[in-house]
Write a structure and sequence with these properties.
Layout: H1 3-26, E1 29-31, E2 37-40, H2 43-68, H3 72-81, H4 92-95, H5 100-123, H6 126-146, E3 147-150, H7 152-158
Parallel strand pairs: 2-3
Antiparallel strand pairs: 1-2
The structure holds heme C.
Length: 159
């Protein structure tokens, strides 16, 4: 068997594994001085993710207000706005830059909002909704301790 052929198969395999790691698991991240990993995005991508973050906060505010007023239809509407359909518009080019841990937590957060909406609709139980909110907000706090966003330009400024 031709040695060169084997060598090229091995090289190709390593390249595929390397790319798989880069695109699926690691994303575009660099270590930073504050201990969080910085996900490096284009300015427009960062703006898009941050605007989704602010929508998370808007939704949480509305959910807690709904719970306090025992207005469960408002809770349903606010939670559903951040449910699984909210992540449909995210472009593949951005998803590739996000590390697996980030994507998993992000996806799980939308799923939990969806479940909160469903339960609020079917059970109408504000205590239950508050418990679910406390649970899902652990994703907010955990993810915020792990990651931050940077652009190439902002990284060059800080180094
Ligand atoms: C999968 C990870 C992840 C999850 C889950 C997450 N965030 Fe974030 N969030 C981030 C990152 C990263 C930043 C940017 C922090 C930085 O660059 O310093 C951020 C920034 C924000 C900001 C600031 C937005 C701005 O305009 O600067 C708000 C508000 C926010 N998140 C709210 C939330 C809330 C509320 C939740 C939970 C419902 C949540 N986030 C869940 C990762 C996450």
């Amino acid at each position: 068997m031709c040695k060169m052929c084997w060598a090229s198969v091995v090289v190709l395999l390593l390249a595929v594994l390397g790319m798989g790691y880069k695109f699926i698991l690691s994303g575009e991240v660099v270590a930073t001085a504050d201990g969080r990993e910085a996900i490096v995005l284009e300015p427009a991508e960062r703006d898009m993710v941050l605007s989704e973050m602010r929508e998370f906060l808007v939704s949480i505010q509305a959910i807690t207000e709904g719970i306090v007023n025992n207005d469960m239809p408002s809770v349903v509407t606010a939670a559903r706005a951040m449910g699984t359909s909210a992540q449909r518009g995210v472009p593949g080019s951005l998803i590739r830059k996000l590390p697996l841990g980030f994507k998993t937590m992000g996806f799980d957060t939308h799923t939990q909002f969806e479940q909160l909406a469903l339960d609020a609709e079917q059970l109408g139980d504000s205590e239950h909704a508050l418990g679910q909110l406390a649970e899902l907000m652990q994703n907010c706090t955990v993810c915020h301790t792990m990651y931050r966003f940077e652009t190439l330009a902002s990284l060059q400024e800080t180094q």
